[in-house]
Amino acid sequence: MILIDNQPISFPDSSSQSQGKDILDILLENPTLVSASNQFKSQPERIISDSGAHMKHVYVFQREFATVDPAVVQIVGTDEATTCVGLVIRNKNNGLTSVSHMDFPEVVDRGLNQMVQSINNPEAILDVFVVGGFDDSPNKNRRGRQTRKEGYSYPLCHKIIVSLLKRPEKFLLRLLFVLRHNTKSDSHGNQIPIFGGLLLETSTGRVLPACFENHARSPDEIVRRLLVSVSNDDLNLRGNLLDIYDTRRDIFTIPCVRWSMIWSELAYETAQVSDEEFLLQFSTSPFAEPPHFVQCQRRIGRYVIDHPDWRYTFPGGKPRVFQRNDDGTWFKCD
């Protein structure tokens, strides 16, 4: 169930369909949500450089989720979203907050289950914030090459809204900064997102646009990025978000994922293509990616080429566990 201004939303089925609108289109025009989007857009993007002893944060990569306790973590967030979506669900009763970085509609239903179950007391009214997924369809890029006809963002945003609407919990939709609200044009006329990241201040519940610098995406950046791709080979993980953080103990646990040797062959082949061709082949939004996208993906490929056997990364099939130092940095536990 979705609420706006503490009231359940309802839709005039026949009239909305006759006008060519669906649930998502109607919500994008809701005055309360439009006002919230305008306010969010007016905020400066906050840059997170690193955790410290007095400001602990948790960063969520693509296809991950993390649930945090405000007594332990002050900031939780994600970035690098173009056609992906950052989703925040917060229990106002206890402050527990779950943040995910969803990339495809296939992970939405199970992902929502994981997030809601981790928050406790699902009978409470849960605040929801949705950020990401710019208007990528139709979009002619500067080479005159048209992207995927229906885009990637709309199906994902639509799936999230429909799934929230069908669930029994009460979701108070506070922000829907997606699609046309999160779209601008670059100097070449390509449509790109206004913001690709968000953070939530756990003590206040305030959500702001955010960008995380490299060191702030710790721990275990390369392996966690790698798992976005290779986790599809694991039937136990397919369709789920990766649950990587335990807020009670303030530790990251990167689950063991097994991948085939073919990944190193693929990495070697992609290492031979130009940066421009790499973007066109391996990005859902080649002209909206951040400047470091290709370099980062090449680092992942180099890791797989150097360590093609998953057992190097996960000796004995054990997860990789990281604990936080007193100064906010992370160290790997034996």
TrEMBL record:
GO terms for biological process: ubiquitin-dependent protein catabolic process. One of its GO terms (molecular function) is protein-N-terminal asparagine amidohydrolase activity. GO terms for cellular component: nucleus. InterPro entries: NTAN1. This is Protein N-terminal asparagine amidohydrolase.
